[in-house]
Amino acid sequence: MYESAIQPPVVDPTPIFELFRGSYGSELLTAAVAHFDLFGCLSERPMTLEELGDQLGLQPRPANVLVTALRAMDLLQQRDGKLCLTALASEHLVPGSRLDCGDYLSLAAQSPGVMSMVDLLKSNKPLGAEGDSGTAFIYRDGAKSAMDAEASARHFTLALAGRAKNVAPALAEVLPIGDAETLLDLGGGTGIYSYALLQKNPQLAAVVFDRPDVLKVAQEFAETYGVTDRVELHPGNMFADPLPQNVDAVLLSNILHDWDVPECKQLIRRCVEALKPGGRLFIHDVFLNDSLDGPLPIALYSAALFSLTEGRAYSEAEYRSWMTEAGLASKAKVPTLVHCGVIEGVVK
Ligand SMILES: C[S@@+](CC[C@H](N)C(=O)[O-])C[C@H]1O[C@@H](n2cnc3c(N)ncnc32)[C@H](O)[C@@H]1O
Q1: Number of the ligand 1 atom closest to the C-alpha atom of 163
Q2: Domain range for residue 85?
């Protein structure tokens, strides 16, 4: 008897993911107060994001992640294109002000999580990038990757299954796969999302494209879900190797948030090249508000992505602009589960 990939959870697991990601909020807030004097800086004058980044010695990606979280916490706001303090931050986080709570927050200034976050913000490099372990979830030629060593690839791939098992039934339910016969699941990991779509759509076949050690796990999962006869496992580097061509649909599930903007644009372009005329790209991910000021759970997840990978969470507007640039007509976002949703882009 095979397992079902399309049986949804009885209880929505989203609160567990939110609680788990909560630590990023206190790390970013403590770093801003105790290590960057961010509120002191902005109490002197409003600044653009670029000016603030320069002042604090932060590159655009860490500046974006930190400021998005503080805006989502209602500590910063944007007026006329410049960042300034909210009433909450003005009264309680400006050093030396009568009701300043900064010293209280600074009790955690030297805690390992805060110190590590400060290093990551300053260096703009993900955890593991400079050690022997390599970075989790991403592979680029010439850099050490945890996805290219069997034990760590297995560990991280199985970890993601904890979310994918819960979300895949929702994706299979809402994804308008129509009469598509071929799906390319780029960076497919365990392949669970594809396997749910295969169980739901009997005419469909899928290619799961990922690193060779990850695909060992995808093979096991294909057996568990009883879809081996309709799955091809394709090892490669999605940035450099030829992708299967002339497919009806491409799925990028939780992929683009691992990469910086130039890589996101490159991947979307490569997906469009792989698609048939009229083919469809599905971006399944989380989405910040277009104004990059929340929601808080996504802003905190963005900090997690920033810490572990070369990416961050992006807004729907950011994704749509890259899709348009690549020649796709995008449709309205449809929610799945655990803050995820899917945007469909059709090759014009
Ligand atoms: C965050 S995981 C997403 C997995 C799955 N799509 C999901 O939604 O759970 C990113 C996946 O991309 C794969 N990946 C990263 N860089 C890659 C590359 N250059 N070529 C192929 N696969 C890559 C990783 O091995 C990993 O399985």
Answers
A1: 9
A2: 14-123
